[in-house]
UniProtKB/TrEMBL annotation:
The organism's place on the tree of life at top rank: Bacteria
SUPFAM superfamilies documented for this protein: Zn-dependent exopeptidases (SSF53187)
Organism taxonomic ancestry: Bacteria, Pseudomonadati, Pseudomonadota, Alphaproteobacteria, Sphingomonadales
GO molecular function (one): metal ion binding
Protein's UniProt name: M20/M25/M40 family metallo-hydrolase
Length: 503
């Protein structure tokens, strides 16, 4: 590990994380040559996948997205790939038996967030290559970094190993869902299928490909992620006869209640007067505080990711309550949130329209931390509203799951540490990702498996306009596409080696 931490933090870090270095990947030079030869085909594959967006919220390209994912798995060398029906968007289950002693689980999402082409500098489904100042050539498109870029790089890695005449060092079990962007509404149904559950149970853990490399080339290891619950609050003619069935003339507000005001009043009870601290009754009852080790990891992460860069990336000038940077990071990773994603009621066009809305809707999300659960959060929300008489506020939960956690000494995490230390990649560890993915499905019963993220690649703009994934890097310390592919190659061998040590 190269020196970016203070001396005291470096000593503490090494004392707590020293493990044997990863061995060299067999035939690495030959595999790297294969990756280079396949570069154009791999970039084209990413572009083609971006051109087919599956958007669960709009039921767009279902089941076409699942069929495409199924074919991607087969093309990558999985011996079998099946479409798994759910009550919503179908999933894909695939296995690759390499005759190895170790089996690794793999989680993909093939769906993407919605997009408005008017907000983009290039068409969101084109996969255009754009020069990013100071970084290199990047592909811009919806899903480029979340998650089609990292996933394409992983598929390219297993293709290259096989094309180079070698068997994979691990067997693979893949589950790919098409509803991650609506909080994995039916993913539990997929893992409940006996064939899927039994295959995953043979694995040492499950990981999701990601882009976890910073602008300076440093990497981040995450030990979990917050949970997420997406839901809507609706007030209007459909929830009570106090409100009109449609928009009516605004003069009627003298005698008819406005559902928009009622919704605002309900929303105001969900947070404290500061506008951000959750105020739902019993909300913090099961929130587990950060340990001293976790606080130390957060402080180390702050040294590798300077505050000025973080503020610039987010487009803000200060944190809540003007808190110090490390304090804001502790809040970021440890506090559950009640967030309003959007509000809609009445007329929002140019000028006024003098209407009283017939319906008001708020789209919200919870982010949950250990040891909260989805069911607990939803039940507390409903009880909170009922206690205050908001029986006319309809709560509709569209999806969600709890937080996930993986121990620092698990095989998946040890393999990352060994790989980064062997290659001299500076890295930090964070207790959990403040974003979410449904790793709890693997962490929890009946599987009780480690679940983590890994990817030594770079990108940005997830859920936002001009989402991008780096293809050719102008900085030798930062990976372009081919280097990201080789990082997955190395990781598979590092996982196999660490699993062997555990045996």
């Amino acid at each position: 590990m190269t020196g970016r931490l203070s001396g005291a933090m470096m000593a503490a870090f090494l004392a707590s994380s020293a493990i044997p270095a990863a061995a060299e990947t067999p035939d690495r030079e030959r595999i790297a040559g294969t990756v280079e030869a396949q570069h154009d085909a791999n970039v084209a594959a990413l572009r083609d996948w971006i051109a087919l967006p599956t958007i669960a919220a709009e039921r767009l390209n279902t089941p076409a997205g699942a069929e495409y994912m199924q074919q991607l798995a087969l093309d990558a060398g999985f011996q079998q790939a099946k479409i798994i029906p759910t009550d919503g968007v179908p999933a894909v289950f695939a296995t690759l038996d390499a005759g190895a002693d170790t089996t690794l689980g793999l989680y993909f999402m093939y769906d993407v967030k919605q997009f408005d082409p008017a907000e983009w500098n290039s068409p969101p489904l084109e996969g255009r290559l754009v020069e990013r100042e100071g970084e290199g050539l990047a592909m811009v498109g919806r899903g480029a970094v979340n998650q089609k870029g990292p996933e394409t790089a992983f598929l390219a890695a297993i293709k290259a190993i096989q094309a180079s005449g070698r068997k994979l060092p691990v067997n693979l079990v893949l589950v790919a869902e098409g509803e991650e962007e609506v909080a994995s509404t039916h993913f539990d149904q997929v893992v409940a299928v006996p064939e899927v559950r039994d295959a995953l149970a043979k694995s040492i853990g499950v990981f999701i490909p990601s882009a976890a490399q910073g602008e300076d080339g440093s990497a981040t290891i995450t030990l979990g992620a917050k949970g997420a619950v997406e839901f809507q609050l609706v007030v209007g003619g459909e929830t009570s006869d106090k409100y009109p069935q449609t928009d009516i003339h605004s003069s009627n507000h003298a005698r008819i209640e406005n559902p928009a005001w009622r919704l605002v009043k309900a929303l105001d009870t969900l947070v404290a007067d500061d506008g951000h601290t959750p105020a739902i009754d019993g909300w913090f009852e099961n929130v587990r505080p950060l340990t001293e080790r976790q606080k130390m990891l957060i402080a180390q992460n702050a040294e590798l990711n300077p505050e000025v860069q973080e503020k610039e990336r987010l487009g803000v000038g200060r944190w809540i309550d003007d808190e110090p940077y490390v304090t804001s990071l502790e809040r970021f990773y440890s506090q559950p949130t009640v967030n309003i994603q959007g509000l809609n009621a009445g007329y929002t066009g140019q000028g006024g329209k003098t209407v009283l809305p017939g319906r008001a809707e708020a789209k919200l999300e919870f982010r949950l931390v250990p040891a909260m659960t989805k069911d607990e959060a939803v039940s507390k929300l409903k009880a909170h509203l009922a206690k205050r008489g908001f029986d006319d506020v309809q709560v509709t939960v569209s999806g969600g799951y709890g937080p996930n956690e993986t121990e620092e000494d698990s095989t998946l995490i040890r393999a990352q540490k060994a790989l980064f230390e062997k290659d001299g990649v500076p890295y930090s560890i964070i207790p959990r990702n403040a974003g979410s993915w449904p790793g709890v499905i693997f962490n929890g019963p009946p599987l009780n498996l480690p679940a983590s993220q890994f990817g030594l690649s770079r990108g940005g703009g997830a859920h936002a306009p001009n989402e991008w994934f780096l293809i050719e890097s102008s900085d030798p310390a930062v990976n372009g596409f081919d280097e990201a592919v080789m990082a997955y190659v190395d990781y598979l061998y590092a996982v196999a080696e660490e699993a062997g040590r555990s045996d």
